[in-house]
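Need ABC transporter permease subunit's 3D structure for a figure. Predict it.
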Amino acid sequence: MLSHLSFRKQKTIIMILFTVVPLLLLLTFAYYPAVELVRLSFTNWDGLSPDKQWIGWENYKEVFSNPEIFGVFKHNLAYFVVGIVQNLLAIYFAVLLNSKLRGKLFFRLLLFLPYILNGVAVAYLFGYVFDTTQGSLNTVLGVFGLPSETSWLGSESFVNYTLASIGLWRFMGFNMVVYLAALQSIPKDIYEAAAIDGASGWQSFVRITLPNIYQIIELNLFLTVTGALEVFDIPFVLTHGGPAGASETFVMKILETAFQFNNYGLASAMSVVLLVLVVAVLGVQRYFLNKGRG
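Structure prediction for ABC transporter permease subunit:
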């Protein structure tokens, strides 16, 4: 169809198509739903009625004034804390497996394998691990004479840390691979020159390794923060928000509000709040990281 046109015009048309088509897809499946979400957040739509009554800021007032809604964010704190530990372990294993270690390819594969497993399957797997009476974890603790009847998923005080530890096991290998790729991009000559100048391993890590993987650390912290705020699958499968709502996350609350109570307007407002909170936290993160970098 374009054969009768000049090469210059063909190139221009192809460039326009390669620009317009992705832009249309982005507008259709990203920006339009986001705008519609904001619009619905100012209504009391029940998800079925064609009428969407405008109620202004009432949904947002409900989100911030009701501790049963906004208060569940404190449950997400455990995922953030464990996520930081996860990144520290990922850096440690990345540095270790980037060295001249025998069998390092096997250990890389071993640590990365949990990431490719399905999230629901992982949740069911750890349901057997953390079972109070017949769980493998309590069985192992009993062998060593430690308390072997701990209710890992039934205690309000640490159930979220128990669930977050599953995420550490599952995603640490992915973070390790990302850090490992960054480490392998650092020229070996720099380390050799530092060794000749008498730098210790720790000094090389602080002065050479960390500055060169700083942007990757920022990327993984971005994934950690968003993952901590948007966690859903593991607590939903294992505890359904229990005991007594102690492990309910904000995303679970949004889905419950929308599909169980048919309050799509309030659920939309909660989604907008989550989006704004993610952007705000990431903005603060970038500010302090860039400030520390400077």
